[in-house]
Design a protein that fits this description.
215 residues, mainly beta, 6-stranded mixed sheet, 3-stranded antiparallel sheet, 1 helix, globular
């Protein structure tokens, strides 16, 4: 992990009110050569590299990526579906993704806050519907090709535990990290919060800044 998530405001079960995990989780890839030495990032062909994210409980044993929409429940029932859950109803409770947004990232060759080139996977568009404590599980795979028709999980990394708050208890966004600022300067569409001004800014397509009210 190059950057761990810390907190988020739950986005609920609507489709318009999206609250991104803060700061944006970032995974860094290091590749070993046949001699077990780290390769230079610029010598690695990254075109088929992808990392996917899923949501888990802090114990890293219970998948929390799917949740039951409480608006579709006829009465009290566990929010997270399980094989033992049962309820009498004329309609089936609707299961939806608890982790919403872009859950898969391709590889980016970018300079970090130390001005060094590295291979990164950036998840700046993730939100969580429900409040609670979670971890993110990231799985690195290589897109299948004619030479290698099957995809395998090559590596797994876990984030630290982070907290998702209700709207009333959310303490606010953290200050943008130096790594996030470095990515934004290189054209990555990532929200940047400027200390002491109470405003957030997002990079536009031309590298400029646009004010964003998602604080």
């Amino acid at each position: 992990m190059a950057q761990h998530p810390i907190r988020a405001r739950m986005c609920g079960f609507g489709e318009k009110d999206r609250r991104p995990i803060d700061p944006p989780p970032v995974v860094k890839l290091r590749v070993l050569d046949e001699r077990g030495q780290f390769m230079s990032s610029e010598d690695v062909d990254t075109c088929k590299f992808v990392v996917s994210a899923t949501l888990w409980a802090p114990n890293m044993e219970n998948d929390r990526s799917i949740v039951i929409n409480p608006n579709t429940l006829p009465g009290p029932m566990p929010m997270y579906p399980s094989s033992s859950s049962s309820v009498m109803s004329l309609t089936e409770p609707v299961k939806v993704r608890n982790l919403v947004g872009t859950t898969v990232s391709g590889a980016y060759m970018l300079k970090d806050e130390q001005d060094e080139h590295n291979i990164f996977f950036i998840f700046h568009d993730l939100s969580v519907r429900t409040e609670g404590r979670f971890r993110l599980k990231f799985q690195f795979t290589i897109i299948p090709s004619q030479e290698q028709p099957r995809a395998f999980i090559e590596s797994i990394v876990w984030s630290d535990t982070f907290e998702v708050y209700s709207a009333k208890s959310f303490p606010g966004m953290t200050d943008s990290t130096e790594l996030s600022k470095a990515f934004a300067k290189q054209g990555i569409k990532i929200t940047i919060r400027k200390s002491g001004r109470g405003r957030t800014f997002q990079q536009d397509d031309e590298g400029g800044e646009q004010e964003d009210d998602d604080a």
